[in-house]
Specification:
Strands 21-22-23-24-27-26-25 form a seven-stranded mixed barrel, surrounded by four helices. A six-stranded mixed β-sheet has the order 7-6-3-4-5-20, with helices on both faces. Helix 2 packs across helix 5, helix 10 packs across helix 12 and helix 22 crosses helix 23. It is built from 23 helices and 27 strands. It is α/β, with parallel strands linked by helices and about 650 residues long. Helix 18 links the parallel strand 22 and strand 23. The structure holds alpha-methylisocitric acid and iron/sulfur cluster. The site of alpha-methylisocitric acid (MIC) has 13 residues, from helix 2.
Length: about 650
């Protein structure tokens, strides 16, 4: 028998496989070594963890970061932070204080280890793939289960090889590589896949550059992305004082992949994703020198020391264009501190940049919303409609190089023509100081430690066991690529209510149809009809918990994004897909729909019939779930299932 070589992704999966077979599309269970949470999803995850009654986390390492809800214009966020800090201290979790930086940047610098599995209650957790981790985004409840030592389930992905050749030209960036991948694959292209980078070109990319690429693999809808762990990874970890964490990892020479894409790095030019989707990619020269109003530099995609040094080099000795507001948020305390010490921060400040704290900030609409109709260039990963906080804001996603030169000129500018020499080698030692990470209490002390809940923390909604049939109105019909930012928007005004689902529910689908929450309440719930890739984007389980609270029983679409589908199942909402996609066109908002004999179908079948009573038609819907998923759906969600079985 000829044994075929293995991909790196297969090796990482195989070494953590605890359930299922590595057959694409079937459900597999993985042992999880590390978890991370951030504050916007963390409160809910820790409420769920507390409800499980587990004394102490069972992972090798769990870290709670505070980086999203850092604007404190009321008691809510500060209360949530205190709650998370208390739980972390009591339950064996490290706590990264506000100011220490964005979870993915800090985790890469200080905690990630090649060869380990990581799940995080944030969709950009795949950033860890930049150092050879199998790192995935997940709903808060799945992270809570993993913290308790439970298995994490995903559909076994197909593995895509992206073969990189050549070397990037000056002022062309890692951001342009991932924008090129998005141009080729689109925001649906990564669904059910792991993207594995190989080839000679890999050796020309530093760890921060690799991490930019794996970070934004989330926008492909991919399960995760991964780079080999090589000499460059070792040097990065050594400079972080963590050489002992390094192991060598790579695919076998003769590894077999499901798909292959070639990218010649030397052929790339600066790119931009145009409003309002990360895959609406064109070259900067093609878009032309459009006037801009704002530039924001930072986010978990582009806030490393390397990115910041390039920006400082471009800004040094110049002044930001009078029409432009430039803000910069270095990704971590380590980065900010090093910029302060080497003088680069002074170059930014002198040029007129508005320096923001090391946090998500404008990326999640926490301030810096552009002016009405304003054009904003951002080094971030998402430009979904309304996400910036300005409904008609026009957000373009670009590299730090494009952002910085454009901030000076006031128009979208191609940096390739820059007449500046730039070379920055990553330092041999980073400024390591983990004084903003609080260690958990030793077990004897933990028992006595108190957990304080603020008044904004309300109960987690739970579903009801599935009835025999569902008769409900098609309460909302939406198109393709609906994001979780459409379903459950974020931003400074709404995010403080992440632990208060009743309040949050007023904003559900506000971007598509502000009357949705009221109509859902009046109707006693309903069924949502969606197009392809429904629920793409974030891991936020609020996009399932809030519809659950509003009485939504089923979501029927052409296809679902992975994390949102898992969150719906965990909440006990049925995610069903049309067997015949054209049936989508048949249904109008307001039609009365009946899913017949649904309990029996979920228990025993792969198909169920939905009757359109208004139009007197029938549609076949797909309900092929794993045994585990069927149990959750029948019980009305994972929490009910666990309560019934404990
Ligand atoms: C995002 O970038 O959309 C977020 C905010 O980081 C989310 C998590 C959340 O909604 O809290 C994500 O990417 O998962
Ligand atoms: Fe934070 Fe933006 Fe990254 Fe989400 S995408 S983790 S909001 S920086």
């Amino acid at each position: 028998m000829v044994l075929l070589g293995m991909t790196l992704a297969h090796k990482l999966i195989k070494s953590h496989l605890v359930a299922g077979e590595m057959k694409a599309g079937t459900e597999i269970g993985l042992k999880i070594d590390q978890t991370l949470t951030q504050d916007a999803t963390g409160t809910m995850a820790y409420l769920q963890f507390e409800a499980m009654g587990i004394e102490r986390v069972k992972t090798e390492l769990s870290v709670a970061y505070i980086d999203h809800n850092t604007l404190q214009n009321g008691f809510e966020n500060a209360d949530d932070h205190r709650f998370i800090q208390n739980v972390a201290y009591k339950r064996g979790i490290r706590f990264s204080r506000p100011g220490n930086g964005i979870c993915h940047q800090v985790h890469l610098e200080r905690f990630g280890k090649p060869g380990k599995t990581l799940i995080g209650s944030d969709s950009h957790t795949p950033t860890g793939g930049g150092i050879g981790m199998l790192a995935m985004g997940a709903g808060g409840l799945d992270v809570a289960v993993a913290m308790g030592g439970g298995t994490y389930y995903i559909p076994m992905p197909k593995i895509v090889k992206i073969n990189l050749t050549g070397k990037l030209n000056a002022w062309v960036a890692a951001k342009d590589v991932i924008l090129e991948v998005l141009r080729i694959m689109t925001v649906k292209g990564g669904l059910g896949k792991i993207i594995e980078y190989t080839g000679e070109g890999v050796k020309t990319l530093s760890v921060p550059e690799r991490a930019t690429i794996t970070n934004m693999g989330a926008e492909l809808g991919a399960t995760t992305s991964v780079f080999p762990s090589d000499k460059i990874t070792r040097e990065f970890l050594k400079a972080q004082g963590r050489e002992a964490d390094w192991i060598a990892l790579a695919a076998d020479e003769d590894a077999v992949y499901d798909e292959e894409i070639m990218i010649d790095l030397s052929s790339l030019h600066p790119l931009a994703a145009m409003p309002h989707m990360p895959d609406k990619v064109k070259s900067v020269t093609e878009i032309g020198e459009i006037a801009i109003d704002q530039v924001c530099i930072g986010s978990c995609t582009n806030s490393s020391l390397l990115d910041m040094m390039k920006v400082a080099k471009i800004l040094g000795g110049k002044t930001v264009n009078p029409r432009v507001s430039l803000s910069i948020a270095p990704g971590s305390k380590q980065v900010l501190n090093m910029l302060a010490k080497n003088g680069a921060l002074a170059d930014m400040i002198n040029a007129g940049a508005r320096i923001l704290e090391s946090a998500c900030g404008p990326c999640i609409g926490m301030g810096q919303s552009p002016n009405s109709g304003g054009v904003s260039l951002r080094t971030f990963n998402r430009n979904f409609e309304g996400r910036s906080g300005t409904a008609d804001g026009q957000v373009y996603l670009v590299s730090p190089e494009v952002a910085a030169i454009s901030a000076l000129t006031g128009v979208l500018k191609d940096p390739e023509k820059l007449d500046i020499e730039f070379r920055f080698d990553l330092p041999e030692t980073f400024d390591v100081n983990d004084n903003m990470v609080i260690l958990p209490a030793p077990p004897e002390e933990a028992a006595k430690a108190e957990v304080l809940y603020g008044p904004n923390i309300k109960e987690v909604p739970t579903g009801k066991p599935l009835g025999d049939s569902i008769k409900q109105t098609a309460i909302l019909k939406v198109g393709d690529d609906i994001t979780t930012d459409h379903i459950m928007p974020a931003g400074a005004k709404i995010l403080p209510y992440r632990s208060n689902v009743p309040h949050l529910s007023q904003f559900c689908f506000a971007v598509c149809d502000p009357s949705f929450p009221e109509r859902a309440k009046q109707n006693g719930g309903g069924i949502i009809i969606g197009g392809a890739n429904y629920g793409q984007g974030s891991s936020r389980e609020h996009a399932a918990l809030v519809p659950l609270y509003l009485g939504i029983k089923a979501v029927v679409t052409k296809s679902f994004a992975r994390m949102h589908k898992a969150n719906l199942i965990n909440s006990g909402i049925l995610p069903l897909t049309f067997e015949n996609a054209a049936d989508y066109n048949d249904i109008d908002e307001g039609d009365v729909l009946e899913i017949l004999d649904v309990k029996n179908a979920i228990q025993t079948k792969d198909m169920v019939v939905m009757k359109n009573i208004t139009k007197n038609k029938e549609y076949i819907l797909n309900c092929a779930f794993s045994e585990r998923q069927r149990s959750f759906l029948l019980a009305g969600g994972l929490l009910n299932f666990t309560a019934n079985n404990s």
